[in-house]
Amino acid sequence: MAKGVAWMVLFKALDRGLGLVSTLILARILVPKDFGLVAMATSLIALLELFTAFGLDTVLIQRASATRSHYNTAWTLNILAGTGIATLMLLSAWPASVFYHEPRVIPVICTLAAGAFLQGFENVGVVDFRKQMRFDLEFRYLLARRIIMFVITIPLALWLRNYWALVAGIVGGRCAGLVLSFLLQPYRPRLSLAAAADLLNFSKWLVVQNLLSFLKTRSSDFIVGRFAGPHALGIFSVSFEVSNMPSTELVAPINRALLPAYSKLAGDPAALRAEYLSVMSVIALLVVPVVAGFAVAAPFLVLLALGGKWLDATPVLQILAFYGITNVMVSNSYAAFLALGKPQTFARIDMLHVAVLVPTLIALTSLHADIGAAWAYVLAAVLTLPLTLYFITRFLGLRYRDFLRQLWRPLVAAAIMYLVVRALGPASPTRVLGVGEAALSLGQCVAMGAVVYSLAILVLWTAAGRPLGAETLVLGQVRERWHKLRTA
Q1: Banded pLDDT at 339 (limits 50, 70, 90)
Q2: What pTM does this model have?
Q3: What whole-number distance in Å separates Cα of residue 397 and Cα of residue 281?
Q4: Domain of 49?
């Protein structure tokens, strides 16, 4: 599982790197309208795909007894979903152009419909890369597809110098995914719906979960935009994305490796319980200080990454960091619920979360704009956290003290780090700093925070009697690496 996590984190880093290079190049070749035109079309795709996101790959991973019939049925359902999405895109092209007052969006949507259709034919056998925990093969598959998309988009942008380069890159990436799925995986699916009832009975909750996740993360687009205007929405959206980077860049690839591992342990409650606590403690140890660091270094992070025009994002980012910490605390619970065959549990938790978030978001945004929206997210997360912990402890057979025993040291150490850096680190700027000054201050915050957190966690772990946990694992890895370096 650790190797799988390493492969997925490495892919995420390379994917982000290619994305950053691609964006920097394309931003200098194309104009904002090109990006906006493609965004209009891709937002329609995202909305349509939301209603056909059955999560069949997740079902196949979760079911240890999945047969060839299940795989063939999943492939057939994916083809039907892709065909349905493509058809709806073709039918929606003209209404979308009327809505956006942009006739050029019609051929863009029609071309992207071809990519949605082709994606449905991808070899379902690639799910075995994850199910059999061959994340090295998963890494090659995902990275090759990403590189092909990059190689298609950039030369075409240099040649065409318009939005069709972006469209071709998207369709080319989906074609590459189709071809690679059959080249890298020997499984050859056949058309069948024999196991449709069995698969859809489980996956219906995944569709509900996707809809709820959309409301959790995107309801702010409508509410903040309606009550606070485009400036506040821009500030909030960017702050939300930045504050969630520890989850999207570190925790998400970790969770991709967790589901197949948890599924293999689903029949052994004691082993699953132990593995869940072990993973949660490692995630907390490594990610909680990063989230707290984002909060304390927000003024310099905003100046360095976004520029002086985004100073209003600083308090929003600092508030949303607390929302990020609550996410870290329960980040691997979704994989555990799926492994246990209880997707409905997480869906019900998210139903409550959305029921709390939406009215709170409306009330606080109307009063305090983007600051109020940030506090609404924090309040919704805090109020639903006890329910999540209740279901986790109930289904895994944990006691609350077992759960808290793994979390209290990282939380306390991160709080100490936050307070020390806030008190002794660089003061929040009262003016727009240059790039050099902002980078220096950010570096000082990072260095001081790393030292304080490391010392605090070491002292707390020693005071607790050096219990087995994330600290033991990390120190063991450090000693092993050091020994290999000395004997090399």
Answers
A1: confident
A2: 0.70
A3: 17
A4: 1-194
